[in-house]
Amino acid sequence: MIADRRVQLMARWETFLLALIGLTILAFSLPASPWYSPYFFNAANMLGMSQRVIAVALMALPLTLIVIAGHIDLSVESTLSMAAIVFTTKWADGLNIWVAVLAALAAGGVGGLFNGIVITRIKLPSLVVTLGTYALFRGLAYLILGDHAVDLSRAPSTFLNIGQGYIGATPIPQYLLLFAVLAVLFGIVLHRTSFGRFIYAIGSNEEACRYSGVRVDLIIVTLFIISGIVAALAGVVEATRLDSARADIGTGLLLDTVTAVVLGGVDIFGGRGTIAGPVLALVLIALLRGGLGLLQISDDVANLLVGCLLIGSILLPNLVRQLRTSITRRARRVTPASSPQ
């Protein structure tokens, strides 16, 4: 019964996101709208909007699982930067480009392992630990590369197509196929496996899971390793998309990543959420940023709107939950107790 109610709640939230997506499209594509742009509503432009959020989209997938488990990873943006620098510098030093990719993924995995071990062994809050590694990993990127940049324009074109190429003669970027595969994979893991059920259980009541014999620490460490590896993959994709990498690559992506997860209906306190919700939230964020970009509105205004979405996505579900609880309590007080026969 409780599971059914949760599924219904998430379905209603996803319907709400679909409505917001529809309103956003209308706002930027209807000539009568003050935000109208004649270049907004076409397939090439709408697919092109995904360029600015592909790294966010990749990082949001494992972060969804982590938040459902009752934790947070604020280091993903810096992990992206560190991995991108490892990848590009190793390739520039003469390493095979695919081996350089593996080195970057390994760096991301080690970073995630470090986060997970500190959280589970030293018993520090994930918010504090990953805030510290946010600065640590970014500092490592600057330590490796400094203020210089690595040019990737001489890399093999088949590899650069990951961030710049299209699927056949279609306007669909190749990185969207990568994201779609990963989104389906994460959805299956979360919703169709025992590992996913353990994630929900840990987020709902971690101590009860420990007493039930669930290997909570192993699952949490695994989630952070996965987050580090996928953030590193996002760094590789971002570097190929930009044709270069600097130590400040990915700066500012954390806000959109956390917003996508929370706006997607994932409970910030853990225990509830789906993969579909953050995916819809990513579409909404991409449309907003793309539409505002066409109107030449500054990124500061876009960040303001995204920040408002983040606050609203946290406040609204809690207000609705409190309202329902209040209504239920009043109904119980009004309903007379049945007399015994």
Q: H/E series, N to C?
A: HHHHHHEHHHHHEHHH
**Secondary structure: number of strands:** 2
Question: Structural class of the helix and strand makeup?
Answer: mainly alpha
How would you sum up the major sheet? 2 strands, antiparallel
Helix content: over 70%
Outline, from the CA principal axes? globular
Radius of gyration from CA coordinates: 22 Å
Strand order across the largest sheet: 1-2
Task: Tell me what you see in this structure.
The protein has 341 residues and is mostly helical. The chain has a domain at 54-280. The protein is built from 14 helices and two strands. The chain has helices at 2-29, 43-48, 54-68, 76-92, 97-121, 126-145, 157-164, 174-192, 194-204, 206-211, 216-242, 253-263, 276-294, 299-334; strands at residues 149-151, 244-246. Strands 1-2 form a two-stranded antiparallel sheet. It is globular, with a radius of gyration of 22 Å.
Descriptive tags:
mainly alpha
Write the SSE topology.
Blueprint: H1 2-29, H2 43-48, H3 54-68, H4 76-92, H5 97-121, H6 126-145, E1 149-151, H7 157-164, H8 174-192, H9 194-204, H10 206-211, H11 216-242, E2 244-246, H12 253-263, H13 276-294, H14 299-334
Helix pairs in contact: 1-13, 3-8, 3-9, 3-11, 3-12, 4-5, 4-6, 4-11, 5-6, 5-11, 7-11, 8-9, 12-13, 12-14
Quick description:
The chain is mainly α. The chain has helices spanning 2-29, 43-48, 54-68, 76-92, 97-121, 126-145, 157-164, 174-192, 194-204, 206-211, 216-242, 253-263, 276-294, 299-334, and strands at 149-151, 244-246.
